[in-house]
Hints:
GO terms for molecular function: oxidoreductase activity. The chain is of the alpha/beta class and 315 residues long. 34% of the residues lie in helices and 14% in strands.
Amino acid sequence: MTPRLLAGRAVRPVGLGCMGMCWAYGPAMGEGDAVRLLHCAIDLGYDHFDTAALYGGGQSETLLGRAVAGRRDRVLIASKVGLFARGVGRGIDGRPETIRAGCDTSLARLGIDHIDLFYLHRLDPTVPIEESVGAIGLSEVSAVTLRRAANVHPIAAVQTEYSPWSRNAEIAVLNACRSLGTAFVAFSPLARGVLAGGVEDPNRLGRADIRRYMPRFTAENWPANRELATEFALLAEIYGMTPAQLSLAWILSRGDHVHAIPGTTSLAHLEENAQTMEVPEDLIARIDWLFDPANVSGPRYPADVQAGVDTEEFG
C-alpha cells in the first residue's frame, strides 16, 4: 500500500485499532497474547497504532507500550484523552489542564517520551473548542467544530466512524478535512465486524459486548442490516476478495487523506487487513448504492451516547 501522510509522517493507510484487545467486544486478551499480536502487526508492516486512555481503563496503552519497547522508531502511536468511564456511563472533560494531565498519564503507561498523534476523544460542550485544542487531533466532531479549531491551530487528524454503513462523514467532515489538509482516520471501518462477517446473530454476543446495546443490532433493525451485509459479502466474493478487504478498499478510495484503523484479536484477520487492494469504480458505485444511508436500519448509537457526539447526522 502506498503510504499516506498522518501527523507529518508517511504511514501505511491501514493501521491497527487497539480497543478490542481489552475492551468493548468481549473478554480482554491475555497480556502475552496481546503483545504477540502487536509484534506480529509490526512485523507485517503495520506502522500506525491507535489506542486511548478509555480502553480498558488504560490497559490498551500499557499493552501497546510493552509491545513497542525496542521498536518505537518503527511506529506512529496515536492515543486519546477527555473521555472516561463514569459508572455505567461516560464522562467528558476537555479542559486544557485535563488534557495536559491525561497526556502525562498516557506517556507513563506507554513508556515513551512523546505521543505522535494525540486526540481529544470527544468534544466537551462546556469547554470552547478553541480552549481545548492545540497540536492535537479531534474525534467525532462536526465540520463546523473542525474549522473553529483549525482557526486556532492546524489540526493533524480527525477520527470518526466511517464505513459503507456509517457514512455521516460524507455530509461535511470528509471534505472539510481535505480542504484543511487534515488527515481523516476511519474507526470501525468494518462496521463493528458486520462487514467482516463477524456477526451472525447479535443475541450470541457476550453480555459485555457494546454492540448488544447499539440500535443497529436490535431485533427490529438487525434483519435489514444483515441483508445488506449478505449482499456486500457476495460482491466481495465476485471480485475475489474478503468482505473486510472490500470495506477497507472502499474507504481508502474516498481520498488520499483517508486512513483506516480496523481492530482485531486474530492473526489471520491482521494478515487479511494488511492485504487491502484497489477496486474498480463501478464496484465503488455499487457499494454506494447498496449502502445509501436510507437503506441502513437504525442510528449508530443509543440516544444517551449520541448526545456526546458532535458529528453531523443524516436527517
